[in-house]
Amino acid sequence: MRVDLFFSRDITEPHAEIHTNELTENIQHAINLLEDDSKSNMLAVKKGKDITFLDFDEIFMIRVEDKQVKVYTENNEYQVKKALYQVEESLNQNFVRISKTTLVNIKKIDRVAPSLKGMMFIMLKNGLKDNISRKYLPDFKRTLDL
């Protein structure tokens, strides 16, 4: 499916147009997401030329790598065009920042252990690993009620 996005300073309220020859389940899902003004529990991500929607519960980690925001699920890697802070604003309370470049879903943590120089090491249930920096450790502990 081709997606066109247009920016204009003249538009007072965002709107979307979908042109299709049939109403598929994916298109209906996109319509429902676009019409829902409440905070969605989904994140639009891109893999190659395909755009898909991930439920927050599917996301393990979001981190900046090579100046790109990457989203990791159990077995896949996606990209987001937004800055990390913008993605963070759209997420729910299950996500916590563990470093300047990384957010994790606390429901996907396998274990946390001490690391070097006052940092903590985190391993997620899909095998991804990272360090929790000293700066973000107090917030991390507060989120987990430690």
TrEMBL record:
SMART domains: LytTR. GO terms for molecular function: DNA binding; phosphorelay response regulator activity. Keywords: DNA-binding. It comes from the Archaea. It holds the Pfam family LytTR. The keyword Signal does not apply. PROSITE patterns: HTH_LYTTR. Residues 43-146 form the HTH LytTR-type domain. This is LytTr DNA-binding domain-containing protein.
